[in-house]
Amino acid sequence: MGRQYRSAALAAVGEASCLSYYGLSRFRLRGMRNGNWRRLNDLEKGLYNCALRLGRWRGRVVNAKLLALVWAIIRKLLATVRTRILQVGEAKAQELLAVYATSGVFLWAPEMKVWLRDSKAIFYLGVTELFGR
Known about the structure:
Elements: H1 3-11, E1 19-20, H2 21-34, H3 36-39, H4 42-58, E2 60-61, H5 64-78, H6 81-103, H7 105-108, H8 111-115, H9 119-131
Helix pairs in contact: 2-4, 2-5, 4-5, 6-9
């Protein structure tokens, strides 16, 4: 699965009203290849396999509640180290923004607010948070 297909798949996560058997099998294959299938717990694997079998039997999955759960699992299957770093970095930046705003740091260092919104700084915060200082 190329970068373009993966980003298109992630963009479609919130838009799709059904999932075909082919789509479900491709997402599982991508998760197995990048190692994220191992990181799922048994309940998530079982639910995904049930959705896969339902999709094979009926041709597609259309139940809204089941789709919401399966899309959450698909996001985990398509996750990369970079997306995890950015997610953790964004959370740390939001935490620092709140702390610095209440303590008045932005009064004497207004450039900190710009720095905490910079993508490279967010990536740096994520790396230091995940892999040590």
